[in-house]
């Protein structure tokens, strides 16, 4: 779906999925200047996280566990870089431990 908005306009995107075990929805941006996918943020269960480089420009919200929906909000379109393709993806939350971070190694 293409959305045309002008400077200072609000934008709200919605993402949903049908997978009962998926409890994380992630939002990505792909701009014309940089075709790499950049993680904007995600909702895990009902807890939103926005990456530092996108804080203040984007908000994420939703309930990825119960109603399987997440939202990406642009309070206002402010940068040319905001003109981009936006993707959402759903995944199962992964929990893991990195043993080297649990112990302080003597030097």
TrEMBL record:
Entry protein name: Immunoglobulin V-set domain-containing protein
Domain Immunoglobulin V-set: 10-90
Keywords, comma-separated and alphabetical: Immunity, Signal
Pfam families, alphabetized: V-set
GO cellular component: plasma membrane
Biological processes annotated in GO: cell surface receptor signaling pathway; immune system process
Organism: Oncorhynchus mykiss (Rainbow trout)
InterPro entries hit by this protein: Ig-like_dom_sf, Ig-like_fold, Ig_V-set, TCR_beta_variable
């Amino acid at each position: 779906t293409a959305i045309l908005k002008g400077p200072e306009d609000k934008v709200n995107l919605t993402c949903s999925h049908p997978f009962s075990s998926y409890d994380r929805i992630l939002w990505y941006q792909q701009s014309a200047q940089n075709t790499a996918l950049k993680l904007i943020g995600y909702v895990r269960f009902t807890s939103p996280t926005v990456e530092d480089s996108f804080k203040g420009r984007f908000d994420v919200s939703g309930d990825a566990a119960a109603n399987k929906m997440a939202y990406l909000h642009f309070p206002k379109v402010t940068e040319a870089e905001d003109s981009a393709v936006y993707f959402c993806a759903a995944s199962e939350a992964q929990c893991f431990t990195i043993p080297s971070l649990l112990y302080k190694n003597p030097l």
